[in-house]
């Protein structure tokens, strides 16, 4: 019987299976369940997955997408454009089945998930199925921003993963300014307050991107309270890149961007091979060219940018003035094929009473343009999100669903 194979042979057989098949493996027999959660097995499995991810001649690659509050693994084929769901990521607690997820942040194969009702956080290793649910220090807030990262340690030291939660908003005339900066340490299962008095602002819809353990955001100069309500008519607010360093537990200096954005412009970030940062910029108000740059160097205190990676005028491709909405526009790039895939919605009826379609827009040089329908979007306020995914052997403490 297969369940009685020698351990080394069983490891070799099981390590050839895709991540999405591990759920079935673990329910087959007790021996395979123990083996598939063993560190030596996960290291072998992940080593093969990473080797495949670095093979730039591959036809397909995989990404994690959040669509209709569900987190799934998708296969992307850019030669014959298609984006197909290939399975749910493994979760021993069935996170993807029992809980609706509104936001996902990726760091080294771990996912920080925010529930739809914004009442709970969970850090999840989809490869091992481990989860840890995080209770708030006091409470979570609908305007919270989050980031997942880790300290820099010696090469062979276990990483110390942390979650940053912050809120810095005037929420109402009665409550005024709410400012809360907190860090959760997964090793100690504890929160602590961080003293931050920012002269910058990160808008709620901006999603941070983690690279090498740190998280980067698009940010801009904080406005005085008296003029914050007039942001639409203010045309020249300094903007920049901002990093949170999880080793020093502090925000770094303002870092330059290769453009200057105004209110209403689309600006969104993405990671490239977990080593570089990509930034997408599109002006509003009649200018429909999408521009994407990729960093040549990226550190908490310094950044430099390569020449423009891609510039695509959307108007002749779509036949109308087309701007990726500034609250959407989640994207990723394929450096070799000089192609970007941007997630958004169709440009049909935007009324909340009628469903729309989730669309992947594939854009490239020389007018290359394809659309892939990702299915109906019943909730007009639910935007499709995408992030890179590299399987991880990191062990996290498992805690049952609250």
From TrEMBL:
Q: Which CDD domains does the entry link to? A: F-box_AtFBW1-like
The cross-references to InterPro entries, in alphabetical order and at most eight, read:
F-box-assoc_dom_typ1 (IPR006527), F-box-assoc_interact_dom (IPR017451), F-box-like_dom_sf (IPR036047), F-box_dom (IPR001810), Gal_Oxase/kelch_b-propeller (IPR011043), SCF_F-box_component (IPR050796)
Protein name from the UniProt record? F-box/kelch-repeat protein At3g16740-like
Q: Which organism is it from?
A: Camelina sativa (False flax)
Q: Where is the F-box domain?
A: 1-46
Question: Mind telling me which SUPFAM superfamilies this protein's record contains?
Answer: F-box domain, Galactose oxidase, central domain
| UniProt-listed Pfam families | F-box, FBA_1
């Amino acid at each position: 019987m297969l369940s009685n194979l020698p351990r080394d042979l069983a490891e070799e057989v099981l390590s050839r299976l895709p991540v999405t098949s591990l759920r079935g493996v673990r329910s087959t027999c007790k021996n395979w369940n123990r083996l598939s959660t063993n560190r030596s097995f996960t290291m072998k499995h992940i080593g093969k997955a990473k080797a495949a991810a670095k093979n730039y001649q591959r036809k397909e690659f995989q990404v994690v997408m959040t669509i209709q509050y569900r987190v799934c693994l998708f296969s992307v084929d850019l030669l014959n454009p298609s984006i197909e769901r290939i399975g749910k990521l493994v979760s021993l607690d069935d996170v993807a089945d029992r809980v609706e997820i509104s936001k996902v942040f990726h760091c080294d194969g771990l996912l920080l998930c925010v529930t739809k009702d914004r009442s709970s956080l969970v850090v999840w290793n989809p490869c091992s199925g481990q989860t840890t649910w995080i209770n708030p220090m006091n409470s979570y807030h609908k305007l919270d921003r989050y980031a997942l990262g880790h300290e820099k340690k010696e090469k062979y030291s276990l990483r110390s993963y942390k979650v940053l939660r912050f809120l810095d908003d005037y929420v109402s005339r009665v409550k005024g300014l709410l400012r809360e900066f907190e860090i959760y340490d997964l090793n100690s299962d504890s929160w602590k307050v961080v003293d931050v008095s920012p002269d910058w602002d990160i808008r709620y819809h901006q999603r941070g991107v983690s690279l090498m353990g740190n998280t980067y955001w698009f940010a801009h100069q904080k406005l005085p309270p008296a003029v914050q309500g007039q942001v639409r008519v203010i045309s020249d607010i300094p903007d920049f890149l901002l990093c949170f360093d999880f080793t020093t537990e502090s925000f770094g200096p303002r870092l330059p961007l290769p453009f200057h954005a105004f209110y209403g412009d689309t600006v969104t970030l993405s990671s490239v091979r977990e080593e570089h940062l990509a930034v997408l910029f599109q002006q509003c108000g009649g200018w429909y060219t999408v521009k994407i740059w990729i960093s040549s160097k990226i550190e908490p205190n310094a950044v430099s940018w390569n020449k423009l990676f891609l510039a695509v005028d959307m108007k002749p491709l779509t036949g109308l003035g087309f701007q990726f909405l500034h609250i959407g526009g989640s994207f990723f790039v394929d450096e070799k094929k000089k192609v970007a895939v941007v997630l958004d919605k169709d440009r049909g009826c935007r009324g909340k009473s009628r469903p729309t379609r989730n669309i992947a827009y594939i854009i490239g040089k020389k007018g290359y343009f394809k659309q892939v329908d990702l299915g109906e979007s019943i909730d007009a306020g639910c935007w499709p999100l995408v992030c890179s995914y590299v399987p991880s052997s990191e062990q996290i403490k498992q805690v049952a669903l609250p």
